[in-house]
Amino acid sequence: MTEPASRPPASALTDALTAELAKKTGVCWLRYGGTNHPVWHVWLDDAVYVVSGGEEQPLPGIRSVERVEVVMRSKETGQRLVTWVGSVSTVTPDDERWEPVTTALVADRLNLDDLSTAAAKWAESSVVTEIRPTSELVEAPGRLSDDAHLAPPKPTPAITRGILPKVLHRRKKRRPKLS
Fold first, then answer.
1. Phi/psi of residue 118, nearest 5 degrees
2. Where are the domains of the chain?
3. Burial 45-64 (b: 16+ CB within 10 A, else e)
4. End-to-end CA distance of the chain
5. Which of 21, 33, 35, 174 lies most in the core, judged by the most C-beta atoms within 10 Å?
6. Per-residue pLDDT of the chain (179 residues; tens, 9 = 90+)
């Protein structure tokens, strides 16, 4: 009789799932201080990196947080797949990680005005944060809560640039005649 194939340890599966989801998706939710914050991120060197503050996404109080819950969803279905705990640290401009991390963030950031000065602006007015997985899962496939996690959108100073386009000929929606 042959022995069953040995299964990889749970932490190895958790780490692999976390890495795969973080590589494939560009958005996750950070839970800390009793609120959820949607953020765009980059996966680099087995950690999630986020830039916030200044003209970037708001993450109030992120510098004072030691651990966050990171909620990740499937890119294919959009459904929540895993929630893991990560340890938080700040990447400063004098840190050796600054150059590779900001290079990856600039490459992944949509709609930057000037790619060459983005890292310098972030050094002045933003916070670059590393979130390293601790292999601790809050939710996993097969162990997801039934809560809907619905919340109203947070107020934002975002506006539409310029005036909205005019619609000249609006069509009336008519039901087709059945006879």
1. -60, -45
2. 10-139
3. eebbbbbbbeebeebeebee
4. 72
5. 21
6. 444 444 445 577 778 888 888 898 889 999 999 888 999 999 999 999 999 998 888 999 999 999 999 999 888 887 888 889 999 999 999 999 999 999 999 998 878 888 888 899 999 999 999 999 988 888 877 777 777 777 777 777 777 677 777 777 776 677 777 76
Note whether 129 and 89 are within 8 A (CB).
yes
Both structure tokens of 50: 């986020």
Gap between the Cα atoms of 24 and 75, Å rounded? 7
133 token code pair: 């997985």
Name the fold adopted by 10-139.
Pnp Oxidase; Chain A (2.30.110)
The C-alpha atoms of residue 106 and residue 112 are separated, in whole angstroms, by: 8
Token code pair at residue 155: 């107020």
The span from the CA of 91 to the CA of 89, in Å, is 7
User: DSSP per residue over 1-39, as a string?
Assistant: -PPPPPPPPHHHHHHHHHHHHHHH-SEEEEEETTEEEEE
Q: At how many degrees (to 10) do helices 98-108 and 118-125 cross?
A: 110
Length of the chain: 179
Contact indicator for 23, 43 with CB cutoff of 8 Å: yes
